[in-house]
Design brief:
The chain has 417 residues and is α+β, with helices and mostly antiparallel strands. It is 27% helix and 51% strand. Helix 3 runs antiparallel to helix 4 (286-302). This is DUF945 domain-containing protein.
Length: 417
């Protein structure tokens, strides 16, 4: 009897091993179909043209099409393709599904996508391309071999790395060269917006035009984005940081530019509704517009904070610095649509500093500073001009006691944009 059990066990194991590639093949097809379905959005759509599933391997052919009317029309105007067919060779491994995907019948634009998907759905991907060149009617873009790699989980979490050694954009009147463009990110899209961190860096950007004014050069351009939710998944914080180590032009040099902008305590439910409506912005209906307004009202009613944490402009003569910190309390349910009432509820602080040497070097700036000093909105303090003001009851209140309605300043700023 025991011998029969052993034989049965061995036979069952052999049978399972024999059937296992078929099981993996079926899992692979389901994973593939699910992933293709997730590609559909406002810009592009994807569909499986053919799935030829075999015992140890499969061959899949899919098509990706641009569906956004505006983008599609522009690409057609520039004689660019608006659909692509991809061929994928899939192998049914013991514990994973390996696939190699390439463009169909496009030897001049080699693109290779290698993926390894575990049976639980988690995927590692590597995308490599050779030199690529796109020619529009009045412009062209050329890129050296680039690579994009990372991991995606079934929960939607992604960890990616991007490396593009060189990109050149040419237009009739403008040429832009990017050297060493790279980045990485970790996070996921949750309720329609990003939660996580991303970093992008360009070692050098050179812009040239036909005016003969010389090159405009940016060195070490960096961008960082960090976004998160609180423990209750009810509030959303986001922080954007932008840095340039040096800006050079024919008429001068900016030694550095640092900008940090943040928004905090944003209502997640309101943001989710806004993101959902804006996903189909091309065919938004009157009902959508009304729902969008209601979501914006709810966002304001829940309160939030907004801050220009840092604005530093470094010049040879000194450094200009500015900061703005504003808060809107969560007690706006009664009149969220009245801009004046919203402004009256704001609290915060504004400060700015301009070295006298910088003002002396730029007559237009000096004229503006002199006017602010005359109006008691700025004051001299040693070798700098300083502005300090608080935001309360709808006014910007300066150290001198002078009050200026915040709505007037906001409207003036909007008219100058």
């Amino acid at each position: 009897m025991n011998q029969l059990k052993k034989v049965a066990a061995v036979g069952g194991a052999v049978c399972l091993m024999a059937c296992w590639p078929l099981v993996v093949g079926q899992i692979a097809e389901k994973v593939f179909q699910d992933n293709i379905g997730n590609i559909d959005n406002q810009l592009v759509t994807a569909k499986v043209l053919n799935y030829d599933r075999g015992y140890l391997s499969s061959h899949v052919q899919t098509e990706i099409q641009v569906t956004d009317p505006g983008l599609k029309a522009q690409m057609q105007h520039d004689d660019l393709p608006t659909s692509w067919v991809l061929n994928s060779d899939v192998k049914h491994g013991l514990f994973s599904i390996d696939a190699v995907t390439q463009l169909d019948n496009q030897p001049d634009e080699p693109l290779k996508i290698v993926t390894q998907t575990q049976l639980n759905g988690n995927t590692h991907f590597e995308i490599d391309s050779q030199v690529t060149h796109y020619q529009g009617t009045t412009w062209s873009v050329t890129s050296t071999p680039m690579s994009l790699s990372g991991d995606v989980t079934t929960l939607g979490e992604i960890d990616y790395r991007l490396d593009v050694p060189s990109v050149q954009f040419s237009h009739a009147d403008l040429q832009i060269n990017l050297n060493n463009f790279y980045g990485n990110g970790q996070g996921k899209k949750e309720k329609g917006f990003w939660v996580g961190s991303q970093t992008l860096q360009v070692d050098k950007t050179v812009m040239s035009d036909a005016s003969g004014l010389g090159d405009f050069i940016l060195e070490n351009v960096g961008y960082q984005n960090t976004s998160s939710m609180d423990a209750d998944r009810a509030r959303y914080d986001t922080r954007q940081q932008f840095n340039i180590a040096k800006i050079s032009a024919q008429d001068g040099v900016v030694e550095h530019l640092n900008v940090i902008f943040s928004m905090g305590q944003l209502d997640v439910d309101s943001l989710a509704k806004i993101a959902e409506i804006l996903e189909h912005y091309a065919d938004i209906t009157p009902a959508d517009a009304q729902n969008l307004q209601q979501a914006l009202d709810q966002l304001v009613a829940k309160g939030f904070s907004i801050a220009l944490e840092q604005l530093d402009i470094g010049l040879a003569q000194g450094q200009i610095e500015s900061k703005v910190d504003l808060k809107l309390p969560a007690d706006m349910q009664s009149t969220p649509q009245d801009p004046l009432e919203v402004v009256k509820k704001l609290t915060g602080h504004v400060e700015s500093q301009v070295p006298k040497a910088v003002a002396d070097a730029f007559p237009v700036l000096q004229q503006g500073v002199d006017e602010l000093v005359t109006m008691k909105m700025m004051r001299e303090n040693g070798d700098v001009y300083q502005m300090n003001a608080t935001v309360q009851d709808g006014d910007l209140v300066f150290e001198s006691g002078k009050k200026v309605p915040l709505m007037v300043i906001l409207m003036s700023a909007m008219m100058q944009m």
